[in-house]
Amino acid sequence: MELPLYMVDAFTDQPFSGNQAAICWIGNRTLSEKRMQDIAAEINLAETAFIWSKSNDYVDEKSFGLRWFTPTNEVALCGHATLAAAATLFHIAENKNDVVTFSTLSGDLFATRQNDKILLDFPLNKPEPFNHLDLSSTIDVTLQTDNVTRIKEILLSKTAKKLLIRMKDDFSLTDLQAIRPNFELMMKSHDGLIFKGIIVTTKGVGEYDFFSRYFAPWNGIPEDHVTGSAHTVLAPYWRDFTGKDVMLGRQCSKRGGDVQVKVRADGRVDIGGNTKIILKGHLCLPEQE
């Protein structure tokens, strides 16, 4: 059995930057959850996404199924792999529709072709105040002890299972990039039940409204390069501080990427970005038993 397989750099217009995702078209076949997890572990990128089509038609069809797997587990929402999945439909299959719908564990998600970008229509996951006293050791090993005194506030998005740590405004981009979490101790100090990832964010400068980094060792991803789902938390948070519905964020990982967000009145957020397709091939598998 051969399945089309693509590698896409998301939230960038340059190769070898942004966040990588593998996209596998499975047509109208049925792959077991174990088989998809084994494939994701073999590919070993932050996310491998599987798109299925009931009609096995990637050109005319408007609605598709979509699931996302890290090397260790399935996740309920992934922005960059959704952007990458849409890119394969629009730019490789040359899908005839300007909007496609993905049926996912987070409900229906919509991707719209817009000039050189793709816009994703995602749910907002607003963070709320959170009693974090029991998590002091996790925060210490994430930020390093010297930085703990520079925290402005800590919130939790229960819907996204993400902890948001907002640093004080004098915490610079250089300071953010200098953080070196101890991922082994992060895993030992928290079991991943309350949250699966930690966003560290600070006020932006110049064209950027905010900067961020995202750490998710509980999902098998020590640091994610550019995280669309984290921006469903960041967008409503920073909207309250900037007073702006449309903002530009920069995720400051080693590869890095820009994420455009627009907070909507209907409780959803548009997340926009560029993509670069860097690999086209086939996955060769034995037939499932």
How would you explain this protein's 3D organization?
The chain is built from 7 helices and 18 strands. The chain is an alpha+beta fold and about 290 residues long. It folds into 2 domains: about 130 residues, Diaminopimelate Epimerase, Chain A, domain 1, CATH 3.10.310; about 140 residues, Diaminopimelate Epimerase, Chain A, domain 1, CATH 3.10.310.10. It has an 18-stranded mixed sheet that branches. A hairpin with a 4-residue loop joins strand 10 and strand 11.
Which key terms come to mind for this protein?
Diaminopimelate Epimerase, Chain A, domain 1; 22% helix; globular; 7 helices; alpha+beta; Phenazine_PhzF-like; isomerase; 40% strand; 2 domains; Phenazine biosynthesis-like domain-containing protein 1; isomerase activity; 18-stranded mixed sheet; 289 residues
Short description:
Keywords: Isomerase. By secondary structure, this protein is of the alpha+beta class. It folds into two domains: 2-123 and 273-284, Diaminopimelate Epimerase, Chain A, domain 1; 128-266, Diaminopimelate Epimerase, Chain A, domain 1 (Roll), CATH 3.10.310.10.
List the helices and strands and how they pair.
Blueprint: E1 2-10, E2 19-27, H1 33-43, E3 48-52, E4 63-69, E5 74-75, H2 79-92, E6 99-104, E7 107-114, E8 117-123, E9 128-129, H3 136-143, H4 145-148, E10 151-157, E11 162-167, H5 173-178, H6 183-189, E12 197-203, E13 210-216, E14 221-224, H7 228-242, E15 246-251, E16 257-263, E17 268-273, E18 275-284
Parallel strand pairs: 2-3, 4-6, 11-12, 13-15
Antiparallel strand pairs: 1-2, 1-18, 3-4, 4-5, 6-7, 7-8, 8-17, 9-10, 10-11, 12-13, 13-14, 15-16, 16-17
Active site: 47
GO molecular function, one term: isomerase activity
Keywords: Isomerase
